UniProtKB/TrEMBL annotation:
Superkingdom of the organism of origin: Bacteria
Membrane-spanning ranges: 35-57
Name listed for the protein in its UniProt record: Amino acid transporter
Keywords linked to the UniProt accession: Membrane, Transmembrane, Transmembrane helix
Organism this protein belongs to: Priestia iocasae
Length: 58
């Protein structure tokens, strides 16, 4: 449970029903999801680097 205090009773009830992720780490996920996360982060980092290099070169 996190240290966040709900704004009112409605938000407290909604949080109890739906919840929200806290302290999510890639190391604790199952392998397929972990590999997808690593691929996703790497893809966007490489894409940003390629775009940045393309802008600098032109």
């Amino acid at each position: 449970m996190s240290n966040r205090k709900p704004i009112n009773d409605v938000m407290k009830h909604l949080n109890k029903l739906e919840g929200y992720p806290t302290n999510v780490e890639l190391k604790t996920l199952p392998k397929p999801l972990r590999y997808f996360g690593y691929f996703f982060i790497s893809f966007f980092a490489l894409a940003a680097l390629i775009i940045l290099m393309g802008v600098i070169i032109t």
